[in-house]
């Protein structure tokens, strides 16, 4: 008469009575079925991962000897508390129980925290978003070093950024876009330093070839000259924010300032200019990639984007070698993989600032970087990457958005003197 899964899906509370053995499969069923709060009726049963998970924030612990009191108990729980319980059940399910791989990884991480107790995760890391698997204690034992806890701790990110410019073309002319970009970024009031990652096959240019700037410019050779080296956790980067740039990106100082100002309010996300989107191709039954100019997007490319430096560490340590090797062999898709990672961690879309429609269209037609974007195989490769990445992540983590943040009074009919970012409108 009743569909069991539909009943669970429509229930606020799900009874979890004692099982035949040490646990009951109904417990995981309750977590899985649309935030149904498990009501535990098994005295003495040790809940899974109770060493690190505070189950009082996600489940109602009842006494099986007082079964008839359970209806009164659950009816007395306030709606705000119910919402909190349901949200926590979904977080815990997604973070630690939604796949065999996550269950195994959680087990191994708990063992590691036992062995390396001095660098173990705090209870807050395990019991709050994004969870212990995405918060690596090897990076830092201080919660304030992770962008996810700024709001909880009431702190703000360091008010400067480090620009990382990915260079793949030899320096042959003083009119090359990379030099104009370097000067524009260096003039930003928020720029602490500029790191030029030299991934070109030619030798490093002499110091006098680089323009004089008011901020330090550090040129280093990329490790093995591969694409993934742009996301290595370089010790040179000491600011919270990283401004990732391609060598041929065209940005003004005003655009850089505005993007960083926006990022300071969303430090856990990618904030930037060039946006792309994904879609499900029902005919081919696979994920597709599109660069069509629409209001909808799910990726902000790292050719002109700001994000927290922790994502460099997470990209290097969390992403499997097989995916990074694929990126390096294709010399493509590193920006897509970074977007997959950040969306998988935050469950949020990136943030696009201003229109900046002509991102690659304005670039030099003769540079090696630009020619790669014109390669017909480039688009097909990115389609393939989308599906490879989605397969490894166990689904599509990217989130669609239509939000775009423009400067206040950007197109209003008011005096130019009233506008904070006056130069953007002139582009």
From TrEMBL:
Known pathway: Protein modification; protein glycosylation
Name this protein carries in UniProt: Exostosin glycosyltransferase 1b
Membrane topology of the entry: Single-pass type II membrane protein
Alphabetized InterPro entries for the sequence: Exostosin, Exostosin_GT47, GT64_dom, Nucleotide-diphossugar_trans
Cofactor: Mn(2+)
Family, per entry: Belongs to the glycosyltransferase 47 family.
Protein role: Glycosyltransferase required for the biosynthesis of heparan-sulfate.
Domain of life: Eukaryota
Organism (species): Tetraodon nigroviridis
GO biological process: heparan sulfate proteoglycan biosynthetic process; ossification
